[in-house]
């Protein structure tokens, strides 16, 4: 019992605490009456992508333990994409976090520990056309790839990697054409989190009251020039 208490104390000292970033309201928020509900889902959505033809694709957030990882919204209901058989064949330890539309493909990145796979499925044929497993030197143990952006020419994608321990939160660039990946800004101050406590729906993101969740980079985008 003493050892457990000592461990919690150590975690609290080195990984707990943090300043509160107060919410500011500059009056730019839209009123609730301006929001239109398009679907009511049984599981929380992750990310959403809309094709040029108006087709809506989405991921269901892995923390909600959904039966379907990637879906297309049809008549307000999520339908497994590319199909139910593909969804059932995916390892349970891998859950899609992000989906993007580009070059006629619906692309998603897995959210899990260890190596990830970036998969591409054509939205018309519903066939898997590309898959890549990141090597351990790029996305090692306890790392987590979350969110990504595809370059305008579709030849590369960039994703933030969040390590659950230590101070390693690099960006990862994947070359689709050559199927190679590399890390950028590893341990650079620009991608490391600040000492703030996140608050979601009135709840501080502190595990067991001792470990403060901190995220350095949790979204990324590229401009029309791919920069």
Fold and architecture overview:
It is built from 2 helices and 19 strands. The chain has about 230 residues and is mostly beta strands. Mean pLDDT is about 75; it is low at about 110-115.
Protein topology:
Elements: H1 2-15, E1 19-20, E2 45-50, E3 56-60, E4 70-74, E5 77-80, H2 84-89, E6 95-102, E7 105-111, E8 117-122, E9 128-133, E10 143-145, E11 149-150, E12 156-163, E13 171-175, E14 180-184, E15 196-197, E16 199-200, E17 203-204, E18 206-207, E19 211-212
Parallel strand pairs: 1-15
Antiparallel strand pairs: 2-3, 3-4, 4-5, 6-7, 7-8, 8-9, 10-12, 11-12, 12-13, 13-14, 16-17, 18-19
Summarize this structure as a short list of keywords or feature phrases.
five-stranded antiparallel beta sheet, four-stranded antiparallel beta sheet, 227 residues, Neuraminidase
Low-confidence spans: pLDDT under 50, at least 5 residues?
Answer: 111-116
The helical percent reads under 10%
- Structural class of the secondary elements? mainly beta
Distance between the termini: 53 Å
Largest sheet: 5 strands, antiparallel
Instruction: Please indicate the count of domains.
Output: 1
Mean pLDDT: 77
CATH architecture level-2 label: 6 Propeller
- The tally of beta strands, per DSSP, is 19
SSE topology string: HEEEEEHEEEEEEEEEEEEEE
User: Which outline best applies?
Assistant: globular
CATH domain class: Mainly Beta
Output the number of helix runs. Answer: 2
**Gyration radius from CA atoms, angstroms:** 19 Å
Q: Quote the CATH topology.
A: Neuraminidase
Strand percentage lies at 35-45%
What's the name of the CATH homologous superfamily?
TolB, C-terminal domain
